[in-house]
Each structure stands twice: as C-alpha cells, then as structure tokens.
UniProtKB/TrEMBL annotation:
<dbReference type="InterPro" id="IPR005344">
    <property type="entry name" value="TMEM33/Pom33"/>
</dbReference>
<dbReference type="Pfam" id="PF03661">
    <property type="entry name" value="TMEM33_Pom33"/>
</dbReference>
<feature type="compositionally biased region" description="Basic residues">
    <location>
        <begin position="34"/>
        <end position="43"/>
    </location>
</feature>
<keyword id="KW-1133">Transmembrane helix</keyword>
<keyword id="KW-0472">Membrane</keyword>
<dbReference type="GO" id="GO:0061024">
    <property type="term" value="P:membrane organization"/>
</dbReference>
<keyword id="KW-0812">Transmembrane</keyword>
<dbReference type="GO" id="GO:0016020">
    <property type="term" value="C:membrane"/>
</dbReference>
<dbReference type="GO" id="GO:0005783">
    <property type="term" value="C:endoplasmic reticulum"/>
</dbReference>
<protein>
    <recommendedName>
        <fullName>Transmembrane protein 33</fullName>
    </recommendedName>
</protein>
<comment type="similarity">
    <text>Belongs to the PER33/POM33 family.</text>
</comment>
<feature type="transmembrane region" description="Helical">
    <location>
        <begin position="171"/>
        <end position="189"/>
    </location>
</feature>
<feature type="transmembrane region" description="Helical">
    <location>
        <begin position="89"/>
        <end position="111"/>
    </location>
</feature>
<feature type="transmembrane region" description="Helical">
    <location>
        <begin position="219"/>
        <end position="240"/>
    </location>
</feature>
<dbReference type="InterPro" id="IPR051645">
    <property type="entry name" value="PER33/POM33_regulator"/>
</dbReference>
<feature type="compositionally biased region" description="Polar residues">
    <location>
        <begin position="45"/>
        <end position="59"/>
    </location>
</feature>
<dbReference type="GO" id="GO:0071786">
    <property type="term" value="P:endoplasmic reticulum tubular network organization"/>
</dbReference>
C-alpha cells in the first residue's frame, strides 16, 4: 500500500530512502504496538524537554531582567545620598566647616593666628547663606518686589551679618550666632546621613543630636539675645576706636531686619520680654528716680527706632 501511495516511484529508490528505510523496513511481527508506545514516549519526552527549555528561558529572562533592574538601582550609600541632592550636601559641608573654624577661633588649640579662623568662619557662613538664599529665591530679578522678598529671608540677614564683620576687628560675640546656627542646621542633615548608614550606627552622636534638638528653642533665644547685645558692644568699640563710625548704623539695619523676621520671631520676643522686665523693675518703689527716668527714656527711644512689624 505504501508503494502504491508513493505515486509510481521506483520501489528500490523508495526503500533506499533514509526517511522510509528507518521507519518502514520489514519489522518483526507484533512490534508495531511497541513502536507506537516508544513513539508516544519519545513525543512526551520531547514535549517535556521543550517545556523545560521554555521555562528555563523564561526564568533566565526573568533573572536577566532582575539583574538589569538591579544594575540600574544605585546602592544606598552615604555618597549616593549626598550626590542625590548636591546643594544640601554642599550646605552641610559649609556648615561643618563653619562649626570647626568657629570652635578653633574661640578655643585656639591648634595655635597660630585665630583671626584667620574668624575670617574663615564668616566666609563659610556667607557661602552657606548665599546657597540657602539661592534655594529660596532661585530667579533673580531687578524689581522692587524681588528685593522686598530678598530682605525678608533669614539667609539674606546672615549674609549681610557675615559681610559686616568679615574684615573688621574680631568680635567673639559675632561668631556665636554663626556657630550655633551652623551647628543646629548641620545636625538635621547629619541625622539623615546616620539613617542611611544604618539605624544602629554611631549611637553616641545620635544621642548628642537628640539632646541638642531638645534645646533648640533655648539656643535660638540665646542667639537672639546675642544679636541684641552686639549692638552696645559695637557702640563701645566705636568710642574705643576699634571699629568704623558707620558700623553701628549698618548693624542697626541688620537688627531691624531680624526684628521683622517672619521665620524667626525670637529677636522680637526678646525685645518685648526685656522691655517688660525693665518696666517691672522701674515700677518698684525701691527703684531710684534717676534710674527710672533713664530707663523709661531708653525704652521710648528704642521703641521709636523699632521698625513696623509686617502683617
């Protein structure tokens, strides 16, 4: 029957063909069922192997995609955390440098000329204030509205503060606000770096930062008190010939800006508390009349100099 279906081909050629000779050569009787079973078994094995290859291909493809995705994800390290926001990292570095230079000026443990550390601290604080001011107001404009917003920013105030005292006679009181502000702001970013390093890393520094942050309000009040008492120190230095005649007027402008600050009301609060304290002292019967009169005149004079508070 196979010879007839071959379409009249030569039987010898048909039998000699490799495709047919291996499948339809004269088999022993009773082996057809075994051959069919073997064929079915071979087909099952081939299907299983094909399925395994496809699953392996899928697994390898999934693994390749996972590796590719893992390759694009950057490891969570301190350097990558700092590079993710370069401006914040630069602010942290300048603040740390300000803290170090201020400490070395107040406590000259390394020797040398402390005036150099005084200038470096103020220059670093000026750089910090300029970067922070660029963050708050990135687009510079030559308009009255822009300069009005500019002088409302605390970073502009301390940029002016650094420029006022940078090239003058060194004043220790001028370094204290710079040092404390840099320390407070650097602690926040340092805590973020410690969180990247691990929840249990450098527990001693974490505890110091927590204690410092608990005293944040008291530190800000002390900074405001220092800003206020720098003014009589400058007036005394002017009469002693250690500063310019114009320095009290320039610093008065800085102090008036701090008084009207929107984000830091502690200078205004300290002025109010000191006025109430002096008025309470002058109201006592034991206060001499001359001192009472002088204190009331000083309060009236300072009240006239105080700028209006923006609503």
């Amino acid at each position: 029957g196979e010879l007839l279906r071959a379409g009249g081909r030569n039987a010898g050629e048909y039998l000699k063909s490799p495709r047919r000779s291996s499948q339809h050569w004269s088999w022993p009787v009773g082996t057809s069922k075994r051959i069919q079973k073997r064929k079915k078994k071979t087909l099952r094995m081939s299907d299983n192997s094909a399925g395994g290859d496809s699953n392996a291909g899928n697994d390898s493809g999934t693994g390749g995609n996972t590796q590719a995705n893992g390759g694009t994800q950057r490891p969570n390290t301190v350097l990558n955390f700092m590079l993710s926001n370069k401006v914040e990292a630069a602010l942290w570095l300048t603040r740390i440098f300000t803290v170090v230079c201020s400490f070395l000026f107040i406590f000259p443990i390394l020797g040398g000329n402390p005036y150099g550390f005084y200038q470096r601290a103020l220059i670093s604080n000026a750089a910090t204030s300029a970067l922070r001011l660029h963050q708050r107001l990135p687009h510079f404009q030559l308009s009255r509205e822009f300069f009005g917003l500019l002088f409302l920013e605390d970073s502009c105030h301390y940029l002016m503060f650094s420029l006022i005292f940078m090239n003058g006679y060194p004043i220790t009181m001028a370094v204290i606000p710079v040092f404390l502000f840099a320390l407070l702001h650097a602690c926040n970013y340092t805590k973020n770096i410690l969180n990247v390093m691990g929840p249990d890393s450098l527990q001693f520094i974490r505890k110091l930062i927590d204690k410092l942050q608990l005293q944040q309000i008291n530190i800000l009040r002390f900074i405001a008190c220092t800003e206020i008492f720098i003014m009589p120190a400058i007036i005394f230095m002017m009469f002693a010939g250690k500063c310019s005649f114009f320095l009290p007027f320039v610093y008065y402008k800085f102090l008036s800006l701090r008084y009207t600050s929107r984000r830091n009301p502690y200078c205004r609060t300290l002025f109010t508390e000191m006025r109430m304290t002096v008025e309470h002292f002058t109201a006592t019967p034991s206060c001499p009349g001359i001192i009472r009169t002088a204190c009331l005149k000083a309060i009236a004079f300072i009240s006239r100099l105080s700028p209006p508070i923006p609503q």
